[in-house]
Write a structure and sequence with these properties.
The complex is a heterodimer of chains A (about 80) and B (about 700).
Chain A lengths: L1 E2 L8 E7 L4 H8 L7 E7 L6 E5 L2 E5 L1 H4 L2 E5 L1
Chain B lengths: L5 E7 L5 H9 L4 E4 L6 E9 L2 E7 L11 H10 L11 E7 L3 H13 L4 E6 L1 H6 L2 E3 L1 H8 L2 E4 L8 H10 L12 H6 L6 H17 L3 E3 L7 H10 L1 H44 L4 H18 L2 H16 L2 H14 L8 H6 L4 H7 L6 H10 L9 H11 L12 H26 L11 E3 L7 H35 L4 H24 L6 H12 L3 H15 L1 H8 L1 H4 L6 H9 L6 H9 L15 H8 L12 H13 L4 H11 L3 H30 L1
Parallel strand pairs in B: 1-4, 1-5, 5-6, 6-8
Antiparallel strand pairs in B: 2-3, 3-4, 7-9
Helix pairs in contact in B: 3-8, 10-11, 10-12, 11-19, 12-15, 12-19, 15-29, 16-18, 17-18, 17-28, 18-28, 19-29, 20-21, 20-22, 22-23, 23-25, 25-26, 28-30, 29-30
Classes of the chains: A alpha+beta (about 80), B alpha/beta (about 700).
């Protein structure tokens, strides 16, 4: 289990949990990053930040600092 | 017969084609403005169905209904009928994107719980089909207890059915109550309540969609998907991004400029016509120099605003705006902003007004405010005439280093750089001091590539233009009239004649002293002779009178008063005067310099070396001496001042409207003028020291 930001480009994983309860974490949950959902790492911007992931049929942009709250189990 | 119209509310996630659907149902909106007290856009349209008039309210795109942002708060208020002038909705239409139904139903779960008559419009069905997604709309309708209508807004497929469902909705009682509770129980209780609720909702959604949505992704990628892949490619995507931004940026310059000249010409023509029918006097001056000049300075922005919003709407329509923010985020975070500030700031290089208006897309209040505060530092196109004139007249045209680079071009580029560097510094400092706050999420959807809808793009451009005219027009005209009054009163004919003859005598004396020193063929002597000759012609007399009037006016006296303040910048009081007079609009500074130096109307079309203003500026000396005013450091200090100053009433008015408070324009004006003074001071002092060394 590791951070979302450590997922390699092109690989997928399942969200284990979202840490925190502030507005950022709530936003991540509202956008569908709930425990059990499968996510795929699409890539990052030129400077490595933010990250682009695919989940629930759409693409989401998340800053590395925000992605650190997302714990995934790689597959 | 009911007197109040049937009220329908349209809501949904962003990027679902809601605007296209609104257009398909209604055409042009009948009312566009802001909800009271907030800068959330209110958009209402009307259509008739089965002879019933129906008001359709387009609410801003939201992802949930938890009141975290003004958009969400307004949506909740409208749904509960708490907004004055907007009755409780008779029907709620949830626009749901068929290609990612799971996330879209999150918002729907909140809305369905309210128990209002609801219809779900399933949009982007064509895109879903291409992705191999098929949805059993009937089964979904049964499970949710409300009508589900698949639509393709672009081809108007399903629109007729949707209209029927909307009108019929109040007649059908809500069948199933949304049952989140059973899922809530299944969620691990170590989570906080809010977290548990979010998890439970998605569990409910997955349960509802089980068996309703089936995916058979095709092996070949559609054309749209190929474009998408190219745009997100790390290298090609970034390259495309840079090219697109360059294209937008240069188009504004090259296309908007002739249009602006056309508008200016139109305004001038009206001014000339009015000048021919009005007798000379105060009324004529008020109408032409006050009202027409004021209206002109507003109207002349229109092509740029329309064009900029056209481009922004295009980028938004194809989903590229978010992509731009994504690519620029890291860079902007470094200075305390965020990726969403990029387009507003880029737009501000053409004109800060649409740039500041474009900052509405930034939901984070702090980021939005910070962006608005630094946007005016991006050297807008109104500064360009000032740069071009002063650079052309006072910067020696020498090559620098590499063969094709010349000093004037370097100076010009430096002026732009000054604005950017100062803006970055200001943003950085403010974000660490005054604006330190709770970090806000930059969690942002990256929509797929899609083709923009002409109707929506044109409509957005039109709405932005109208909004600008309404907001800026009245106040700017008022400010222009005030400045006119300050620069034309007090009016004392005798004092003016006295000043003119005094000036004539002073010039003659100077010429005599040059002749006595045997320098009657020098450049200065030629210029003096020319000046004296010009003062004999009718136009010359009128220009001299106008110049004298301005110097004696409140404006002129204020200029003299602040002379000690501007001397450290290397300026004489006339330049200070022009700087004050340019408060309504920056370009006015050249016109004012022209009047104060008795040139009359400045003809900017002639090349800088040729035109009268440049010659007069080059000849200008400090009162009572032969020392030239305009040296290279002075020219540079003027440019730096104008690069950093807030001499644009329109911008300040827009800042006031967009932030909802007059304190921010005051703060903007104060900090920018301070920085402008400091920058001009440093430039002049360092420049003079450098030249002397």
């Amino acid at each position: 289990m590791h951070e979302l930001s450590l997922l390699k480009k092109g690989s997928a994983g399942r969200v284990v949990r979202i840490h925190g309860t502030d507005s950022i974490s709530m936003r991540l949950l509202e956008m569908g990053l709930t425990p059990g959902v499968s996510v795929k790492m699409i890539g990052a911007a030129l400077l490595g930040d933010p990250l682009e992931i695919e989940l629930r049929g759409y693409h989401l942009s998340v800053r590395k600092s925000e992605a650190s709250r997302v714990e995934v189990a790689g597959s | 017969m009911s007197t109040r119209p049937f009220t329908t509310v349209l809501l949904g996630n962003p990027n679902t084609g809601k605007s296209t659907l609104f257009s398909a149902l209604v055409g042009m909106p009948t009312r566009v403005g802001n909800y009271p007290g907030v800068t959330v856009e209110e958009k209402i349209g009307r259509y008739t169905h089965r002879e019933i008039p129906i008001d359709l309210i387009d609410l801003p795109g939201t992802y949930s209904l938890s009141p975290k942002s003004p958009d969400e708060t307004v949506t909740v208020n409208v749904l509960f009928g708490r907004v004055p002038r907007i009755p409780s909705p008779d029907c709620v239409v949830i626009v749901a994107d068929a290609t990612n139904l799971e996330r879209n139903l999150y918002l729907a779960s909140y809305v369905l719980e309210l128990g209002l008559p609801t219809v779900i419009a399933l949009t982007l069905c064509d895109a879903a089909e291409k992705k191999g997604i098929s949805i059993d709309a009937d089964e979904l309708s049964r499970r949710l207890g409300c009508a589900v209508v698949p639509v393709v807004a672009t081809t108007r497929q399903g629109i007729a059915t949707l209209r029927d469902m909307i009108t019929d909705a109040p007649r059908f009682p809500r069948r199933n109550k949304i049952n989140i509770e059973q899922h809530l129980a299944a969620v691990d209780s170590i989570h906080e309540p809010a977290v548990r609720e979010a998890i439970a909702r998605y569990a409910w959604i997955e349960n509802i969609l089980d068996g309703v949505v089936s995916e058979h992704p095709s092996t070949t990628r559609s054309f749209d998907e190929q474009i998408d892949a190219a745009l997100t490619h790390r290298l090609w995507g970034t390259l495309f991004f840079i090219l697109t931004m360059l294209f937008v940026f240069t188009s504004i310059f090259w296309v908007a400029t002739p249009l602006m000249e056309l508008m200016a010409f139109g305004v001038d023509t009206i001014g000339v016509w009015l000048g021919s029918i009005l007798p000379h006097g105060a009324v004529r001056s008020l109408v032409i120099d006050g009202v027409i000049a004021g209206v002109g300075s507003v109207v002349v922005f229109l092509p740029q605003i329309a064009m900029l919003f056209f481009f922004i709407a295009m980028l938004e329509g194809c989903g590229y705006l978010s992509r731009a923010a994504f690519l620029m985020d890291r860079l902007l975070v470094g200075v305390g902003l965020s990726g969403k500030s990029f387009i507003p700031l880029l737009s501000s290089f053409a004109c800060a007004i649409p740039g500041i208006m474009a900052a509405r897309t930034i939901e984070n209040r702090r980021d939005r405010l910070l962006t608005i505060l630094v946007a005016p530092l991006m050297s807008c196109s109104a500064r360009l005439p000032v740069y071009l004139l002063l650079t052309g007249a006072f910067v020696p045209n020498v090559p620098v280093g590499v063969l094709w680079l010349r000093l004037p071009a370097i100076v010009l580029l430096s002026m732009y750089a000054v604005g950017v560097i100062v803006a970055a510094t200001v943003a950085f400092v403010l974000s660490r001091t005054v604006f330190v706050g709770i970090p806000q999420p930059f969690v942002m959807e990256l929509p797929r590539w899609r083709w923009p809808q002409a109707a929506v793009v044109l409509q957005r451009s039109y709405e932005a233009s109208v909004s600008f005219l309404q907001n800026a027009g009245t106040l700017i005209v008022a400010v222009s009239i005030v400045v006119w009054a300050l620069s034309n009163y007090p009016f004392d004919e005798q004092a003016i004649e006295a000043e003119i003859s005094h000036h004539r005598i002073a010039l003659k004396t100077q010429l005599e002293s040059l002749r006595a020193a045997g320098q009657e063929t020098s450049q200065t002597a030629m210029e003096l002779t020319e000046l004296l000759a010009a003062m004999e012609t009718p136009e010359g007399i009128r220009a001299a009178q106008k110049g004298a009037l301005q110097r004696q006016s409140f404006l002129g006296r204020t200029g003299r008063l602040i002379e000690p303040l501007v001397q450290p910048l290397g300026w004489d009081w006339r330049i200070g005067c022009a700087a004050i007079a340019s408060f309504p609009a920056r370009e006015v500074v050249l016109g004012t310099l022209g009047v104060i130096y008795n040139v009359g109307d400045v003809d900017l079309s002639k090349k800088p070396g040729e035109n009268a203003l440049v010659r007069r500026l080059r000849a200008a000396t400090w009162d009572g001496t032969n020392r030239k005013v305009f040296t290279l450091p002075v020219a540079l200090s003027i440019m730096v001042f104008f690069a950093l100053c807030a001499q644009c009433a329109s911008t300040l008015v827009i800042i006031g409207r967009e932030t909802g408070s007059w304190i921010w324009p005051v703060i903007t004006f104060t900090y920018m003028t301070t920085l402008a003074w400091l920058g001009a001071f440093a430039t002049y002092q360092i420049g003079t020291w450098f030249m002397g060394a």
